[in-house]
TrEMBL record:
Keywords: Glycosidase, Hydrolase, Secreted, Signal. It catalyses: Random hydrolysis of (1->4)-beta-D-mannosidic linkages in mannans, galactomannans and glucomannans. Its main location: secreted. One of its GO terms (molecular function) is mannan endo-1,4-beta-mannosidase activity. Coiled coil: none annotated. It is found in: Secreted. This is mannan endo-1,4-beta-mannosidase.
């Protein structure tokens, strides 16, 4: 049998199995408590605690439920509490059968949200497994980058670009329709930690008012649909002024972390840490952490180090000093490494140079040991 035939038979079997699930527009409620803000940290499963978590952008695009199950099981075993996943997957042309996509914006036809077995039903599996293992999810709605569609996919349909997307009524209308479909689906689930506006929104060269206004409008919209879950921005935490005046402090990406954190409908702040991509030395990471903690303290909201990574051959040497800063010197509510990696039925998950694989020697100091001390850290 040709490989392509085997694959199409498997896809057909899988399609039948998955479509047996009810295609609910709202998933069944579960009755445990929702995560919420408690001072500078969070109450998770009715316990006020610090946490460690991670990122798996790909988990909602897997087509084998057992793979999703394995990752969630390993998250729980590792005492990681919060998992950030891509809640978007936008396409401008319909992919081959068996490839997951969530929203189609095909020029010449009406945009639609894919509720089928190769659509949001794959995210349903992630949410259901998260409920089962007690993992909480940060789900975001659009990518600043071109991966899995993002702002560019809206641009291809609506004729917007990377900067005027934020103020285009047509593009924002579709973005809000998408948000509504996802939020309605899971608004009763305690597996949702927070809704996130986007992954690393930027508006290069724009006034910081553009993203500020967009973040305010969008977060208010989400709260109107679902007042019980937290909402956050998903930005990299750019500071305007301060530091040594280098790139992360110039405001050139149109984001003012502190200004945005003041928005009432954003429950906590996020920041990311990519020294090598930003032309900064790795050691600077600890300063970046201290600066964001200080702003959180001033504004009185929790702040989460939501992505961090390094592309050296010894991740422990680079990251352990950062994690020590988080643990010993701040009230950063949680840190979430980029990126979790594991061995699935399809082979190893992606490694962009930052991955730390479950069960490897570096997984112990960077995940097992750090996650354990974060959940045990006394809340003052
Ligand atoms: C987007 O288009 C507007 C005109 O509508 C233009 O002013 C702006 O510079 C463009 N931005 C980019 C990133 O090309
Ligand atoms: C990586 O760095 C850690 C901490 O500095 C060190 O203990 C370990 O021996 C290093 N591992 C390798 C393979 O060099
Ligand atoms: C709503 C709100 O508090 N806005 C403030 C955001 O931060 C800027 C300074 O960065 C203030 O000028 C705004 O009043």
């Amino acid at each position: 049998m040709k490989v392509s035939t085997v694959l199409s038979v498997l896809t057909a079997i899988q399609a039948v199995a998955v479509s047996a699930l009810p295609a609910l527009s709202e998933r069944a409620p579960n009755h445990a408590a929702f995560s919420k803000v408690a001072g500078r940290v969070f109450e998770i499963d009715e316990k006020v605690q610090y946490f460690m978590g991670t990122n798996t952008y790909w988990i909602g695009f897997l087509t084998n439920d057992d793979d999703v199950d394995l990752v969630m099981k390993h998250m729980k075993e590792s005492k990681m509490k919060v998992l950030r996943v891509w809640g978007f997957n936008d396409v401008n042309e319909i992919p081959a059968p068996g490839t997951v996509y969530y929203q189609a914006m095909v020029p010449g036809s009406e945009p639609y949200i894919n509720l089928g077995p190769d659509g949001l039903q794959r995210l349903d599996v992630v949410v259901d497994k998260a409920v089962h293992y007690g993992v909480k999810l940060i789900i975001n709605f659009v990518n600043n980058w071109g991966d899995y569609g993002g702002i560019q996919a809206y641009g291809n349909y609506f004729g917007t670009n990377a900067t005027n997307w934020y103020e285009s009524a047509a593009a924002q209308g579709q973005y809000q329709k998408y948000i509504k479909a996802v939020v309605r689906r899971y608004k009763h689930s305690n597996a949702i930690f927070a809704w996130e506006l986007g992954n690393e929104p930027r508006c290069k060269g724009c006034s910081t008012d553009v993203i500020y206004n967009w973040a305010k409008t969008t977060s208010e919209y989400i709260k109107s649909l679902d007042p019980r879950h937290m909402v956050t921005l998903g930005d990299e935490g750019w500071l305007v002024g301060g530091g040594d005046g280098s790139y992360p402090y110039q405001g050139g990406e149109g984001i003012d972390f502190e200004k945005n954190l003041s928005i009432e409908t954003l429950d906590f702040g996020t920041f990311h840490q990519w020294p090598h991509a930003w032309g900064m030395p790795y050691e600077w990471g600890s300063q970046w952490i201290l600066e964001h903690d200080a702003i959180g303290k001033k504004v009185g909201k929790p702040v989460v180090l939501e992505e961090y990574g390094d592309i050296t051959t010894n991740h422990t040497a680079i990251r352990l000093p950062w994690l020590d800063t988080v643990y010993y010197d701040t009230q950063i509510a949680g840190d979430m490494y980029w990126q979790y990696a594991d061995f699935l039925s399809t082979g190893p998950t992606p490694d962009d140079g930052n991955a730390v694989y479950y069960g490897t020697p570096e997984y112990k100091p960077l995940v097992i040991d750090h996650a354990a001390r974060m959940v045990a850290k006394p809340v003052i």
